[in-house]
Design goal:
- With about 300 residues, the chain is of the alpha/beta class.
- The chain has a single domain, classed as Purple Acid Phosphatase, chain A, domain 2.
- Helix content is about 30%, strand content about 20%.
- It is built from nine helices and 15 strands.
- α3 packs across α4.
- The longest helix has 18 residues.
Length: about 300
Amino acid sequence: MPILVEKLFEGPVDVVGDIHGEIDALLTLMGHLGYDEAGHNPSGRRLVFVGDLTDRGPDSPAVVDLVTELLACERAQCVLGNHDLNILLGTTKHDNGWYFGHEFSSEGELVPQKLADDGIRARVQSLFASLPLALERPDLRVVHAAWNANAIESLPPEASVAELFKEHRARIDVELMARDADELERGLCHQIDNPVKMITSGPEERIETPFESSGKVRFQRRVEWWPDYRGPLCVFGHYSLPPERPRDNPLAFCVDFNVGKRWRERRETSATGPFRRTRLAAFRFPERVVMFDDGNSQLWSVH
């Protein structure tokens, strides 16, 4: 069983945002960062992935296989994301049909993807079942969606993430039955009271006007937790923030720049870009430089 809050590598690291099956973007970014395809960096740097390795992009299996190899030779670490958790649980979602052998269509158009067979599914399950929920060292933390102190502290040292998720889901169901909760309250409680869900998906709140996202009508929205975060620098993904958005807390940085929606941008340009709205990025620590898959970089400054 995995250690749920694992010790983060010592030394310089490059924390890579949500990849979502974009293998070419990952390999290109690794090259800009000075890594070869085997993950070796002559400067001794190592890679850290914030999860959401799969779904939406053209080749999720290739990303899984590469990350698996990098972990095996201790040239990378990775935490579990919410998309990874859904697959680990066998939960069908709008954009993870590739794992179940189903093609993905959006807005009436097919999104080209490599589909999984039994061998691929076994490799994916093996990787996702081995991943921790968080990484930590005295000066740096890495998590997929939210570093929530209560959720982190409630975790056992080691456990099956899937079984822990199910245990908390069952506990919450019992508590909700005792107070005759409505469907909206049930959904929100399952989101914020399950530590596995909190860490991989972040806090949410009710909204008055529902909206549609990823093929589902939603009655709750994500809550930005990081403006009030205090602690060692925390790097996370999940929130698909645009590059131009100001980062207003020097202790928290979102490294997800929406590469998971690159399949939409491909409809407007060639299959190889240039891509201007979607980018895969890495946060270089301790330099605090953000490197993008187009080769551009910028020093992180708080506005």
